[in-house]
Amino acid sequence: MRVRFGLCIAAVGTSMAGGAHAATFSVTTTGDAGAGSLRDAITQANAAAGPHTINLTATGAISLATALPNIAQATKIVGPGAANLSVRGKTGGRFTVFVVAAAVEISGVTIAGGDGDRAGGIEVRSGSLSLSDSVLADNAADMGSAIYASAPLTITRTNISGNKGGNAAIYALNTATITDSVISDNATTAIVFPPAARVLTIDRCTLSGNNGARGVGGLQLQGGTAVVTNSTFSGNIGRLGGDFWTYSDGVTFQLLNVTAIGGSAPSVLADHAATFSLRNTILSGTGDRCRVARMNITTKGHNLSSDATCQLADATDKPSTAPMAGDLADNGGLTKTHALLAGSPAINAGDNASLPATDQRGRARISGAAVDIGAYEVQEDVDAGTDADAGTGTDTDAGTDAGSDAGLDASFDAGPRDAGADAGGGGGDDGCDMAPGRGGGGTGAAASALVLGFLFARRRRVTGWRS
């Protein structure tokens, strides 16, 4: 394929302004090599300065026999939708599906079956990665089974589920922002964030059902700052705890309108000289919700915990209080949440200062007299009579939202790799010094079946989420 400089610059529009050699390439076949293949498009894009666009018009599965070329020029890869195209590593192979070494955007694809040293699905070596409307499933690695990022990372409207082994599904060594996404049912910790003087931002996300065999299931903060807003942690388990771990001295956790329910005890493992602050946050489950040593938890008020272990001493806090929340479910929005049931002590009990405009679902905050505690805001004057906001315990929104998030939140079949991941995941106390074992299975046909329901566009109609 020839690079048609003049015509292609016009085709990509203003986003390519200033790129004298910018070109657009089309991937028209699911073949691994040859004209019209993804491998050929990346090779051609690497041959000239970008930014380039690679449009994936083929549908089905691109099964890689060997590693793709590293993406070495600024490139936007646009897929036809995660339900329509997957890019898969080789069964029994040992390579990462995508290696990023420039400013790269990837959207609308499923990335599965990768098995690398540092990353299974995507390694971001340099440049940056913006990943959206995609799925990463059934990948494995020694460090980040889905993603290992040494450079800035942005994840939006993406499902990262059913990945196995490594220290985490996402291992981020630089600034990272994750929005409107699901990280669920991974046989490893959901996120490990080690870099000092960097910030991890999590907004309107659900982290659920992750199993950190050597640490916690949710978020292990080894450096820098984690700012978590309007997000749900549910049913995460680990050898040392469920949701949050201040792994290193000097790290800072900031939780605002977060709901953490169920999973292993403690939900919060605060065992270093670190800062852990929370406001408008729910911590609920069986056993100690917090285990604190060498530090104190900083309450900024209006928090609710099912026991008295979290040092909630502000007059507005509600220790030893059940939140009265429903099960994790599709309550509208892009991600599953725990709806507050009628009579919940979290309703109208939060602090209205410095809030995001919406809750996790994209619904307006401060529907009643005050903001609700947690990620879910009861819509007292909108959904009355139809959902948990009116006390039924199930948000149906008169049928407009029910079930339409199934593709985003459904978990992937763990597949044959699980045995190795679980068997090898028991050793080590620090949660990061050695990689767990991995089984040798294939890419997992179940991943293909799941992503057939993964259609983000349907959610634009009522929830008001921001693109």
UniProtKB/TrEMBL annotation:
Keywords carried by this UniProt record: Signal
Signal sequence, renumbered to the chain: 1-22
Biased composition (Low complexity): 387-414
Domain Right handed beta helix: 104-233
Pfam families, per the entry: Beta_helix
Gene3D superfamilies: Single-stranded right-handed beta-helix, Pectin lyase-like (2.160.20.10)
InterPro entries in alphabetical order: Beta_helix, Choice_anch_Q_dom, Pectin_lyas_fold, Pectin_lyase_fold/virulence
Transmembrane segments: none
Start and end residues of each stretch annotated as Disordered: 385-440
Protein name per Swiss-Prot or TrEMBL: Right-handed parallel beta-helix repeat-containing protein
Organism: Pendulispora rubella
